[in-house]
Amino acid sequence: NKGTDFPPVRLHNGGEYGYVGTHTVVELIEAGYIVVVMDNLANASMDSMRQVNEITGKQMPTFSMDMLDKDALRDLFKKHKILCVMHFAGLKTLGVSCNKPFLYYKTNIGGTISLLEVMKEFGVYNMIFSSSATVFGSPSYLPIDEKQPVEGCTNHYGNIKYFIEEIIKDICTAEKQWNVVLLRYFNPVGAHVSGKIGEDPQGVPNNLMPYVSQVAVGRLKELTVYGDDYDTPDGTGVRDYIYVVDLAQGHVAALKYLEKGCDCKMFNLGTGKSYCVIEMAKSIETASGKPVPYKIAGRCADDIVSRYADASLAEKELGWKANLDLAKMCEDLWCWQSNNPTGFSTES
Ligand code: WQD
């Protein structure tokens, strides 16, 4: 449907210079959409967008600005007719968010409200929001479906996503012209098959798979496994690792769903499969042929033992499901990491 079934549309992506955002821009362009990109570069580099341009052969209009800057937002909306906003923007580092609540609430929640207000000023009522399975906190049952209550959780990052979901739901209840899809990501991993884009967190990675791949490539010495005494197959934490390109294609499916009008809907984007920590480290060893030494440490406070999705609603309503298996995810992750041992270029 390269612009035939669906007219090319302009999408405004907040925060898509980052990991999931860049992969989603590639899939949107592949699907025939026209994309306008925006990011404040707090946790991303311009190089990631240059790589997207190389992969797609397209030069997107890009705006380096902050969603708290309403005048800059207005300038973007004046310049481009936006059909839908895909909102990825926000600070994410778990450990930091607890110590800097003002920064996190102002940026993530204040920024979202600023974005929604300017969207309304320009009559743009369609949004896809990058939410997270962390809103479920410690799951009350597994696999996790969309009916599971999300009363917020001890995890600060998950709480902010929960607050933003509730704000958006309230707006959609009060003003029926809004169409919003909240996508709850499980654990995105892997990289585009080209090896040109991938996950490149600033500083020492908080998340498992970028840490493991940086050990394999020799950038970090060894993996610390936080707890091996959980009630799981190998005693370590269990997660639903979803290939980032599958996740990105979930956004395209959500956009097509939203174009028919949808009020406010939530979907879990996961695979329904689950893997333990050491299993993931071994998968990268197999994919890379490199050792991933690790040591066992105590559990992290408030860490979730096991979290994986019932993704059947997204399959039924969006016609989307994750396809890639663990081995291929790790192969593509290694292709990115071995091609970019020190991550994206920092040249501006
Ligand atoms: C996975 C497992 C750790 C690092 C993420 C983030 C966020 C969100 C998904 C989208 C756990 C263990 C980790 C390490 C380890 N994404 N681990 N050593 O905990 O699900 O959090 O959820 O919103 O990315 O909130 O993922 O990758 O941090 O940890 O042993 O150095 O690996 O204890 O069991 P998590 P993670």
Core attributes:
alpha/beta, 348 residues, 11 helices, globular, UDP_G4E, binds UDP-4-deoxy-4-formamido-beta-L-arabinopyranose, 17% strand, seven-stranded parallel beta sheet, three-stranded mixed beta sheet, galactose metabolism, NAD
Brief summary:
The protein is built from eleven helices and 14 strands. It has 348 residues and is α/β, with parallel strands linked by helices.
Give an overview of the whole structure.
The protein contains eleven helices and 14 strands. The chain is of the alpha/beta class. The strands form four sheets. The protein has a seven-stranded parallel β-sheet, sandwiched between helices. UDP-4-deoxy-4-formamido-beta-L-arabinopyranose is lined by residues 94, 132, 134, 157, 185, 187, 206-208, 211, 223-226, 237, 239, 277, 300, 303. Residues 94, 132, 134, 157, 185, 187, 206-208, 211, 223-226, 237, 239, 277, 300, 303 line the site of UDP-4-deoxy-4-formamido-beta-L-arabinopyranose. Belongs to the NAD(P)-dependent epimerase/dehydratase family. InterPro entries: NAD(P)-bd_dom (IPR016040), NAD(P)-bd_dom_sf (IPR036291), UDP_G4E (IPR005886). It catalyses: UDP-alpha-D-glucose = UDP-alpha-D-galactose; UDP-N-acetyl-alpha-D-glucosamine = UDP-N-acetyl-alpha-D-galactosamine. Residues 15-332 form the NAD(P)-binding domain.
